[in-house]
Amino acid sequence: MPKITPFQSVRPNPSLADRIAALPYDVYNREEACIEVKKEPLSFLKIDRAETQFDNSVDTYDDRVYEKARETLDEMIADGSFLMDEKPCFYVYELTMNGRSQTGIVACSSIDDYVNGTIRKHENTREEKEIDRINHVDRTNAQTGPIFLVYRSVEEINRIVRKEKEKTPVYDFTSPDGITHRAWVISDSNVIEKMEQAFAAVPTTYIADGHHRCASAVKVGLKRRKEHPDYTGQEEFNRFLSVLFPDDQLYIMPYNRVVKDLAGMKKEEFLEAVRKAGFTVSYLGDTPFAPEEKGTFGMYLNDGWYRLTADKSLVVDDPVEGLDVSILQNNLLRPILKIADPRTDKRIDFVGGIRGLKELEKRVSEDCAAAFSMYVYYGIFPRTTIINRKPAPVLCNQVLLPGTFHQIPALSPGFYR
User: Fold this and answer.
1) Full-prediction pTM beyond 0.85?
2) Which of 33, 130, 155, 342 has CB atoms 3.0–4.6 Å from 49's, for a disulfide?
3) Which residues are CB-contacts of 369 (< 8 A; sequence separation ≥ 6)?
């Protein structure tokens, strides 16, 4: 069973929470992050993306950036922007988007559970993103971005959450992106003990989002164990920040792809190669296409949208290789566009579905040659997989391509550390 524990949080002053809360660090490019911080000087992005406090002559991954993140965090704690709870607590965190709510428990998870597989991961990570977050966690001595974990719903945990939500929340605000955030502090020792006992009945947790942050936090923890061979296991570096949601509250969105170039081909050559690879290509003009069935893909080039339909021979009966992200990678991105490894190839980027299809059009008009909209696959996690009658990749502990899917609403960094 996973070890889920309360922790002594550093969290925003309630009077400033709506100004400090920010979207995840990887939602923005550097220019967008700078605009956000200029618009809201208290935004947590100035810690999560501290390059926003330098001009473009300073590289995003420069040592000075991580030092600035630590310095800024210390300053905000000192001036009262952040408060520290007096004792270890659990926290109930509710997000509401478009009238739909999901509620999780903010807690700490064990790095040993990640190492031994009790926490199931399903996605490979990209090396440069991992290194960035390793440096950020190590230099700031803080975990600023929670890991989105999922567990099979437990009625006792649900009961405790419902009871706590009858109280007045310590946070209650709507962020500029339209998401309402509410949070409650569980400080009663009896309730904390009941929560720990309830989680003891959970056999496994699953990483739904935050593979890079999780891998980075774990690697920093293992590094510090080597630096402190007399560690007891009670040190904070043995745990990482997480928000745990019951599986029946998941809302999954696609992770779309954009590619920088057509590997030296002209558009007509590229389209012919796609056809020969086993895809039916239908031109849609200005009509955006979001796939609604397995084996179909939207593709946007500089002359408009296309619908790609994979031949049945490309759709294999395998829990990983049969996913649409794998079909696209194995039959188009790798052989035609020469994207051998999406973890390391800088010619490919990932765009969260929450940004919409317009974002794909925007990227092609600015810095990319092709964009692909993906089908949302709901059979990743156990409950939906039972419906689909196929083994879930996470149950098999199998690893998917980076950017297979993502969840919304996104967790707001800066709430807890």
Assistant:
1) no
2) 33
3) 259, 260, 261, 262, 301, 302
